[in-house]
Amino acid sequence: MPRGMKICEKCGRKTGPRKKVCECGHKFYFVPKGLKPQAGKQVNWKELTRGDEIKVIQGSGPYWPKDKTDEEGEDIPMGYFGRYKVSRIDATGIHAYPIKAPESGHCYIFMGKETISKTGMVMRPHKIRKLKRRET
Asked: Which DSSP string do the residues of the chain spell out, in sequence order?
């Protein structure tokens, strides 16, 4: 069998290493390398230190509420999402930098208590997960 080929557990066919679904319909599951969220572990953001890597969950964080006169309108998210490296923390959030493009530069990930700013933005804390390196 050529290097990298795999055998379907369901039908026994040989298939290519990058194939996601066998001809019989069986789905192959991959374990990605690199960073992964710590499963089921709550993160105390105040215990993060410089160099820690985190994942900010999409759809969390501050947002502009939808216009009350527009029945079909939606809230406008203003928070961050993706993977970040912690620079430092302060009383209400995390100073961090994106791990990879397309974002660049300093990001402030709000983690304080939910409030409404003077301008009307809902300041809701982001949801985060701490990342750890997988052993290879």
From this structure: --TT-EE-TTT--EE-TT-SB-TTSPBP-----SEEE-TT----GGG--TT-EEEEPTT-S-EEPPPTT-TT---EE-S--EEEEEEEE-SSEEEEEESSTT--S-EEEE-S--EE-TTS-EE-PPPEEEEEEPP-
